[in-house]
Amino acid sequence: MITGPIGIIFYSILLLFLPVLLAPLLKNNQRVLINASFLTASAASLLGIVAGVWTVGGAFTNRIILAAGLPDLPFHLRLDPLAGFFITVICLMSFFISVYSLGYIKGYLGRRPVTSLVIFYNLFLAGMMMVVLADDALFFLISWEVMAAASYFLVMFEDERIENRRAAFLYMIMAHIGAIAILLSFGVMAGLTAGLGGFNGYTFDAMRQAQFPIGWATTAFLLAFFGFAAKAGVVPLHVWLPEAHPVAPSNVSALMSGVMLKTAIYGIVRVTFDLLGTFPWWWGAIVLIFGLISAVMGVLYALMQHDLKRLLAYHSVENIGIILIGIGLSMIFTSFNFPMLASLALIAGLYHTMNHAVFKGLLFMGAGAVLHATNERNMEEMGGLIHRMPWTAALFLIGCVSISALPPFNGFVSEWLTFQAFLLSPALTSPLLKLLIPLGAALLALTGALAAACFVKAFGVTFLGHWRGHRMPHVHEADWFMRSGMILAAFTCLVLGVLPTFFIDWMNIIPEQLLGTKMGAGSGAFGWLWLAPVARERASYSGTIVFLGILVVVVAAYIILHVKPGAIQRVPIWDCGFGKLNERMQYNSTAFAMPIRRIFGFLFHIRERVKLTPAGAYPAVPKRLHYYLRIRDRFWGWLYRPVVEFSFWMSRRVGRLQQGRIQAYLIYSFITIIVLLVFSK
Amino acid sequence: MDLNIAAQLNSFLAAFVLLTAFGMLVQRRMYGLVHLFAWQGLFLSINTAIVGFEAGKHHLYISSLLTLTLKVILLPYILHVLIRRLKLHKEVEVVVNIPLTMLMGIALVIFSYYLMAPVSRLSTLVTRSTLAVALATVMIGLLMMITRRHAVTQIIGFLAMENGLFFAATSATYGMPLVVELGVALDILIAAFIFGIFFFHISTAFDSLDVEQMARLKEEE
After folding, report:
1. Is residue A665 part of a domain?
2. Is residue A596 a part of any domain in this protein?
3. Which residue of A has its CA nearest to B108?
4. Domain range for residue A211?
5. pLDDT tens digit sequence for A585-638
6. What 3-state class would DSSP assign to A235?
């Protein structure tokens, strides 16, 4: 009998395996299968939330050793506050999304069987929880692969479309390249810990105790960072992300984008702060620089998209960048021995991890509701959905405000904390960093502004205006399961934004254990009301007061507008006397993003063409106009195409061995025999 | 029998085995090949009997008898039938011309002697000097498989290789245990049957037994 928080999580993982086993039996009754499995998943996630919150709050460190796995290499499981925090994030989102799935997956009823989706969904959740619990390299990698393989099959779910198969294949390749790097990194650490003769070094405990020479530690760190970055979608390893996330079913996209990427963040934090322990400052600089590149490039790519889910996927790249900025700053401060600042930056990164999970999950659920209702992912064909889907529109708007880092929602708090960490950098002594860090702060500000622009576009084009497609399909509001999932997530966004001090106090144990110092969260008489990361005089923020202020303004405006009848009038749009306005004349997403495309065009591979078809003899009066725009990722041509071409070239070379003539094959064996005879002599 | 005489007889027969191996390398006619193969089997069988007598290993008589029935009578008979049924009277096509093949064979023999020199020095058996010949026979069998185009000639090359292995076994260790030899003999027999049946089907299906045709089976570029 395993007790304590780790026991709860252990049993909740076992609970997740239940639908996996039952699914084949229930496959003839799909409705029961959906209800049973997603209710089980919700229950398991609730258990996980309880255990995670409990672990972090009580600062427990539990461990168990399972007599499973290879002989003499048992599985080690360990639950410490860091793991507990990620368990909370994972389970919080998987709870919301499982509730949402109860409604969303029913959309597949009668269209295609969902047995495989149910199986891999639960395996995927279990895999993510196992990754966080793992306390040895073997179990970690097994869980990592369970997670990767399950998500591969989920991306593959609608496999009749070639787009899905290609995306899944690309995802698989990237996941495996990353996994190889992680494996090598653990190999380096384990080998240095206990020598290459035995396997004793494979537990994380042994790695924690060991002292690594700087060269090998750097090798291990770089390999691990590469591997986790491939999973997290850090630019330039992000190419799989905008392909795989949009084509998966929306609940899975929400999980992948909101939660799965966070396991990579967990891996980076675990390896650098916990396993390696000490590091030079330039490791932090690497993390910071890649974080900045991802943040800026991610948001710029997102602006260019007109596929709603693809846009959201690129925003995950951006937000992973912001999280890495926090972690990178924390590493820099740690190595210069500023533990207070380091814990501030780490809290900023982790808090953004949690916030991003919640609002990105919410946005993907909203996009899923739109997709469910309209069967459309292309924003250019949407519009005016606020009239048909008021709930979804309002909830999606909350997600948009959160991700754009506007108060009083949660995105603001974590980005504000990141800025605070940036603004404290003059304490550093290295002149290079003094130059780099203000630049980073400026880029982060740019990112925030562009993200806001992007979500104005996403919300405006999708929900406002008129329907742009040829024929408005029968659009229906999301059902109550989907709505409750989204409402829960939106409410969490608000709570995390209004009462950040509680959460920061709760998770303050993590920097205390990893870095030795807490972040000073509150100060003064109303400690919980004011979030003051360094000192009250320097900077402080109160989500509650801002929220109340906004509430007062909104209520006042409502009263002023509604108290007098006739203050609001509905009139036709002024059409400049032209008189024939139609829905084709609205701003669309390409048009909205055009100014930004002009400014940052050099970062993309853009091909733009306008073709006029004149009407007969009057070239000045065009009959038809074709606008062609194609925007491609430059990284594909720079980084991936050479690799792809090289591997094809190598394969063709090697393929020449396959002559098809039996004599040739015999000659190969003949030569091999002779060579072996000569050399074995 | 004197030990010396036995050793000389052994070397003499080894020379004949090698000679027939070269003969097969040169022979262009299908029937000629089968006859040479039968002769090689006969020399092998006599050699086995002499070694058995010399070393006092009586199970070698049984292997000798087995060799005689299988490799001198049964397999050549099967090949004969195959050639007659499939009407393969024409000349054997070769990939590399005959003189060059001969030169390669000679090089292989020298190579084998060079390779086996340390082994022969260590061994105390009467038959040690023939080990190199046995290895050369194996190699020449492989060379024959490489240089011939026709499927039946490849089988003969394969069987010649097996002869070489058998010869190596008798000369290096006075033969393998009887069970193993019985097993190998049975394998060879079954292999020959299977080859025969397959060739029959291949030739009816494709109208040819030229292995060049198989080049079409590979993946298109």
Report:
1. yes
2. no
3. A674
4. 1-225
5. 888 888 888 888 888 888 888 888 888 877 777 777 777 888 888 888 888 878
6. coil
